[in-house]
Amino acid sequence: MIDLGTITVGPLDRQVLVGPFSLQEGDDTLWVNITQISPQQEWNYSYALLWWESIDGRQLGTQKVYGTQLGEIFRFGVGLSPLERDGVIYFAPRAYNRRWISIENPPLWTLNFAAESGVTAGGGVLSAVSNSLVRSTDGTGLQLVQVDFT
User: Fold this and answer.
1) Element (DSSP H or E) covering residue 31
2) Are 40 and 51 in contact (CB under 8 A)?
């Protein structure tokens, strides 16, 4: 995994840039490992939204993430390679309630990020359910063939 560094957020932060990340040619999945650096106890003030964004938008989706000192890996992907491979990772904390915001000296949330891209799509394999109507991408019908596995 590629280390993207550490960020520290407070209750008033809305969207924080984690850093740039480029997917390799043909990759359709991004894995992001998040490890909570501080505080050392369970973080119970908020969760966050995390996403990878290119000029074409959030093509790999958005994840709801929580902090943990042990670290956790989040998988981003929709089964298709994004059209644009260069992008950036964003982190947006969301308070559960006003408790984090209303504390006089609110604690800060520090997290370390690492990321890696790869391929998890089915490699272009087309499958269909018996008695279903299937069309190719050019609008013509597809010929279904029965295969006996013996």
Assistant:
1) strand 29-38
2) no
The whole-model pTM stands at: 0.77
Q: pLDDT tens for residues 54-107?
A: 999 999 999 999 989 999 999 999 888 899 999 999 999 987 767 788 888 889
Q: Is 90 helix (H, G, I), strand (E, B) or coil?
A: strand
What is the architecture, at CATH level 2, of domain 2-118? Answer: Sandwich (2.60)
Signed CA dihedral, 71, 111, 2, 88: sign only: positive
Pairing status of strand 16-22 against strand 86-95: antiparallel
Give the whole-angstrom CA distance, residue 65 versus residue 111. 11
Of 2, 1, 65, which is closest to residue 36 (Cα–Cα)? Answer: 65
